[in-house]
Design goal:
- This protein is mainly beta and 385 residues long.
- It contains three helices and 23 strands.
- It has a six-stranded antiparallel beta barrel with strand order 2-12-17-14-13-18. The chain has a five-stranded mixed beta sheet with strand order 8-7-6-4-10.
- It is elongated, with a radius of gyration of 32 Å.
- The two termini are 47 Å apart.
Length: 385
């Protein structure tokens, strides 16, 4: 079944590639309410007494035409993360969904004491105290302490007595015991500010585990268990668009797109990421032979901002094909003469008119690319409006 559908789609694409522009032009003409005429006679002259387009005219111009696909996207946030508890005790405080927590802020509380956010790429994996082996986690701790106003000395991978003094001052200001060391679980290192998307624990829930991880990187101690407490994301708003398997080729990283925001304003955007999306399953699961789609992640550029409308839909315009500086006429200038053959009616300077058979190309923005004997920029053609 899936193979048959795939074959039919491939066949359809081949036929559209052969006829695409002419068929698109015909559909657009009908949609615009223009009479599409099936006229006889020779290719070179006008049919005597024939009714053509209305009395409006346009010009043959050289234009850049862009064929675009408009897809529906959803406003969301990048950088999903899960905050894990590494301390044991009862959950006594949780943030609300939508809260934004920044460096030094409380993520949640266990047994009345806060678990705090610091910025960094290396997750917390050990107690940080004087004597621990050098490591990137020490360096990122020191950077955070300095950013919060506590002087840790030279910012490097070495946990010194100056680092311990900065930690003790920080702990004292928080109302914690000023030990000069940070037990595993007191701090969560995450990449920047965190927006709470969902709780993963409840108030009053008892968390298992054992605080602290020894002073070394392994120390022979068993790893304390971890429990999800919060689901978060970054504060960077993005647009996500799911494209079907036969639409994947239109999107690539770095591609410029247009994003039509709620309210109608269009702003520039850029495709920042692509990820495969499994096809939706039918009654018995994913259909045999179904091809995966792709999810495009889009960021708005040029200093514009995506409104804080989580889950709202927007339109995203992908450019599929571009034809630069091509001869084109208003779409309503095309007249079907037989089958899939088209012509335009040219007004000569002396007042005469003649029919020129043309080959349509790309159609976009109310114009269509044309090639025909004797056509040049500046020539006047009859149009339907």
């Amino acid at each position: 079944m899936g193979e048959g559908r795939t074959g039919r789609r491939a066949g359809g694409r081949r036929r559209r590639a052969l006829r695409g522009a002419a068929a698109l032009a015909a559909v657009a003409l009908v949609a615009a309410g223009v009479a599409v005429l099936a006229l006889g006679g020779s290719d070179g002259g006008a049919a005597a007494g024939s009714t053509t387009t209305a009395g409006f005219t346009g010009k043959v111009e050289r234009r850049t035409l862009a064929e675009r696909l408009t897809a529906t996207g959803t406003i969301g946030y990048a950088g999903e993360a899960t905050v894990l508890a590494r301390l044991s005790g009862t959950v006594t405080a949780l943030p609300a969904v939508g809260d934004v927590i920044r460096r030094g802020g409380r993520l949640y509380a266990v047994a009345g004491e806060p678990v705090l956010l610091m910025y960094g790429a290396v997750p917390a994996y050990r107690t940080l105290a004087a004597g621990v082996p050098d490591g990137k986690d020490v360096e990122q701790l020191e950077r955070n302490l300095a950013a919060l106003g506590y002087e840790p000395g030279t910012i490097d991978e070495d946990f010194t007595s100056t680092t311990a003094a900065a930690v003790a001052a920080w702990q004292e200001d928080l109302g914690l015991e000023a030990t000069g060391e940070i037990e595993l679980g007191r701090v969560a290192f995450l990449r920047g500010p965190q927006r709470v998307t969902a709780p993963a624990a409840t108030l009053g829930e008892a968390l298992g585990g054992g605080g602290g991880g020894g002073g070394g990187e392994s120390g022979g101690e068993a790893e304390p268990p971890s429990t999800p407490v919060l689901r978060t994301s970054s504060t960077r708003r993005i647009v996500s668009v799911e494209l079907e398997a036969d639409q994947q080729s239109i999107a690539h990283r770095g591609q410029r797109v247009g994003v039509v925001l709620p309210g109608g304003a269009e702003v520039p955007g850029e495709v920042r990421g692509l990820a495969a999306v499994e096809p939706a399953g039918g009654e018995g699961g994913a259909g045999e032979g179904a091809e995966p789609g792709v999810e495009a992640t889009i960021a708005v550029t040029g200093g514009h901002r995506i409104p804080a409308l989580d889950g709202a839909t927007v339109n995203v315009r992908f450019t599929q094909r571009v034809r630069r500086h091509v001869l084109s006429v208003p779409l309503t200038a095309l007249v079907a003469i037989s089958g899939e053959r088209f012509a335009v009616y040219v007004r000569d300077p002396g007042g005469g008119r003649r029919r020129v058979v043309v080959t349509p190309g790309l159609a976009a923005d109310g114009y269509v690319e044309v090639a025909g004997k004797g056509l040049r920029a500046g020539v006047t053609v009859e149009t339907g409006r």
